[in-house]
Amino acid sequence: MFNPGYFNEDDMLGGGMYPRSISHRAAGGLPRRFDEYYRCYPIVMLPGPERENVNHGGKVMMPPSALDKLTRLHITYPMMFELINGAAEKVTHAGVLEFIAEEGKIYLPYWMMQTLSLDPGDLVQILSTDLPSGSFIKLQAQSTDFLDISDPKAVLENAFRNFSCLTKGDVFTFAYNDQTYEMAVLETKPGTAKNGAVSVLETDLEVDFAPPMGYEEPKKVSGTSTPASGAGRLPSGGMMHSAGTMAQAINYASIAPQSNTAAAGAKAVSSNFLQGGHKLKGSKAPTPKASTPVAGASTNPPQPLATRPRTNGPQPLRLPPGKLFFGYEIKPVKKKGEENKENEDTKPHFQGQGQTLRGGTKRKGADADSERGGR
Fold first, then answer.
1. What is the pLDDT of residues 56-79, one digit of tens each?
2. pLDDT tens digits, one per residue of 260-290
3. Residue 93 class from Cβ within 10 Å (0-12 exposed, 13-18 middle, 19+ buried)?
4. Which candidate, 106, 7, 92, places its Cα nearest to that of 58?
5. By CB count within 10 A, which of 121, 201, 290, 308 is most buried?
6. Please, where are the H alpha helices in 121-245?
7. How far apart are the C-alpha atoms of 205 and 166, rounded to whole Å?
8. What's the CA gap between 78 and 201, in Å, rounded?
9. pTM, 2 dp
10. How far is CA 372 from CA 362, 364, 369, 375, in A?
11. DSSP label at 54?
C-alpha cells in the first residue's frame, strides 16, 4: 500500500501543488526572483489601437505567462522590474501595465529602448525588484522649449501617472500640447537602491529643476545715458554722474518751468523768420540772364535747405531704472489775507511827477519885472 517512491519534493512543492518559492521559504531560504529573457520591441509595434500615453511612460507590456509565474512567486503589486542589457551593460527600471504581449515578447517605450541601447528583436533580461519610495528628484530639460510651459508642475504631475519608478541617468519623454519633451534624471533620493532607482507611486515627491540644456542667463543692462551727461555711459552702480546732483544729471536748468533758456529756445524753433531781412529802397535786384535750357537739367538755381538751429530747448527726462525725480518747485498756497497784504505792499504809494509851489511864484514875479524894464 505504501510506495516509498511516491513522495517527491519536486512534484509536491516545486512543480506540483505548491510553488518552489514555498519550499525555499520552508527550508529557511529567500524567495526566488522573477528572472526571464524576452525579445523587446517598441510600443508602437504592439497590435491594437495606438497607445501614446504608454509610449511616453515608464511601464511595459508583458506576456500572460509572466503573470502566471509572478503569481506563483507571490510577487504582489506594485510589480517593478529591473531591465538589463548585458551586452551594453546598461540598466533601467520599469513597471508593468498589462499582460497582453505575445509569448516570448516584451514591449517597451521607445525612450527606454534608447536608454538601454536596444534594437527591435534584441534580448533583454527582466528581473523583479523592490524599490524605496522616492522623496526627491532633480530633473533637467533637454531643450529650452520646456520654459514655454506655463505650469510645469501640473504637467509633470500628469506625466508621472504613467510611471512607476525612475532611475538616475534616464532620459524619459512626455507629451504636452502635441509636442514631445525630453527630461533627464540627474539625482534621486534616497539613494539606497542600486543605480539610484526610486518608486514614484503613492509618495510625496519633491522635484527640483536644473537649467535646461542650451539655456543662457540674460545679460543685465546697466542703464541709459542722458544728453547732459558728459560720461556718455553710466558707471557701475547705475548712477548718472560720479559726482554732482540729480538736477545736474537731467539738466534741470533747461526744463524748469521758469527757465528763460527753454522759452527762448522754443521761441527760436517756432519762429518763421530765421533769415536776414532785405531792403527795398535803394537796392536793385539783378536782372536774370537768359539761358538755353539743357535736357535733363533744371533751370532753377539750387536753393540751400534752410536748417532750423535748435538752441537749448527742453531736454528729455531719462532716469535709470528704479529711480524717480520730482523736479517741480513747491509753491505754498497763500491765504486771502496774505494776498491782500502782499498787493498793498507792492503798490507804489506816490505816482506821477512832483511840483513845487515856491519855484512857480518866483518865476511869475521875474517875468513881470522883465516886461516893465522893456517898456
1. 999 999 999 999 999 999 988 889
2. 555 555 555 555 555 566 666 665 556 655 5
3. buried
4. 92
5. 201
6. 152-159
7. 12
8. 8
9. 0.52
10. 16, 13, 5, 5
11. H
Phi then psi for residue 129, to 5 deg, are -155, 165
Q: Which three cell numbers stand for residue 192?
A: 539606497
| C-alpha cell read off for 46 | 504592439
Cell numbers placing 149: 510651459
Helix ranges (H only) for the chain are 9, 20-26, 52-55, 64-72, 110-115, 152-159, 246-249, 252-255, 260-270, 336-346, 357-374
Round to whole Å and give the CA distance between 23 and 10: 9
DSSP state letters, 77-109: SSPEEEEEETTTTEEEEEEEEE--SPTTEEEE-
Cα(226)–Cα(231) distance, rounded to whole angstroms? 9
Contact 242, 285 (CB under 8 A): no
Contact 246, 325 (CB under 8 A): yes
Contacts of 241 (CB under 8 A, 6+ apart): 229, 231, 248, 249
Cell of 194: 542600486
